[in-house]
Amino acid sequence: MNTFKAITISKEDTGSQNVAYRDMMDTDLMDGNVDVRVSHSTINYKDGLVLSGKSAVVRKFPMIAGIDFAGVIERSTHRDFKPGDRVLQNGFGLSETHYGGYSQKVRVNGDWLVKIPEQFSELDAMAIGTAGYTAMLSVLALERHGLRPSEGPVVVTGAAGGVGSIAISILSHLGWHVIASTGRLQESEYLKEIGAAEVIDRKELSAPGRPLGKERWIAGVDSVGSHTLANILAMTKAGGAVTACGLAQGMDLPASVAPFILRGVSLLGIDSVNCPMPRRVDAWNRLAKDLDLAKLHSMTTVIPFDQVVDTAPLILNGEIRGRIVVKIS
Q1: Would you list the domain boundaries of the chain?
Q2: Could you tell me which of 71, 66, 73 has the C-alpha nearest to residue 32?
Q3: What pLDDT, on the 0 to 100 scale, is given for residue 129?
């Protein structure tokens, strides 16, 4: 019987959380019609929350952590997949209700899987991960809203993080004038190398602001929330739109209705976890077309599996630049 290693989360009688590397067996896996040998995973902000226990993301214990994985199918009874296929999964309950990607082997529902575009290695797929896929969903949402680069700049918050870095790279490739908002101005050169035209201090956006401000941009990609998102909306040009895909500053939105009723600004929510499969596939196909692999590699750091638990808290503290890929196998 096969054994493999995984990072498990269990709940103690005291209510505290225990995170450990464990040896597991095939019989420990949850139900599913596809078995995947995992080669790579990644560390997203949500993974940091899960491993730290700072947010009630996990809804079933014990749980294997990791909201992403990429690997090769070993067994499949699903109509669309066969052994040898290279696949990835983002969300669909991984690390919440279903065992996640910090495991050398996973068993999942094939309806949750996406075939890795041929342009990407498994490492590339996880260098993108949920963060990059979410960034692409944001870009697609702005396009569906009808916005174009000729209408004005786009602001990207949390710019040096995973969502921000990949959003900047994609948007600049598409011709947008990108304004990067960051609390780490020492990363300005890095942000300009991946496509930012301007870099501003997040302090300009993170404090309580006015209901309506000077129009500065036509679009925004926000992974921060709270006062930052409120200020972005207040400074968005008439007819513009902002995507909301994160909560690094907070889950609250201390805004007014002024931008919506006086300028016709739209707030576009991005749900990467339960996004319908056609939209997922579209996002990954667009990533294969519009994401510069050289820029992706420049923003990616690879760590071994045994460093995940020590590295994850750094993402919550804003100490991670770009993307972290975990080599699982």
Answers
A1: 3-116+299-327, 130-269
A2: 73
A3: 97
Backbone phi, psi, residue 312, to 5°? -55, -40
The CATH code of the domain at 130-269 is: 3.40.50.720
| pLDDT value of residue 319 | 92
| Mean pLDDT (whole number) for 52-60 | 85
Query: What's the token pair of residue 268?
Result: 């576009």
How far apart CA 55 and CA 24 sit, in angstroms, is 26
Predicted confidence (pLDDT) at residue 28 exceeds the cutoff of 90: yes
First to last CA, the chain: 18
CATH architecture classification, 3-116+299-327: Alpha-Beta Complex (3.90)
Cβ atoms of residues 159 and 180 within 8 Å: yes
- Helix, strand, coil fractions of the chain, as percent rounded to 5: 35, 30, 35
Q: Decide: 153 and 232 in contact? Cβ < 8 Å.
A: no
Q: What is the mean predicted confidence (pLDDT) over 26-32?
A: 96
pLDDT at 307: 97
Ramachandran angles phi, psi of 107, nearest 5°: -125, 120
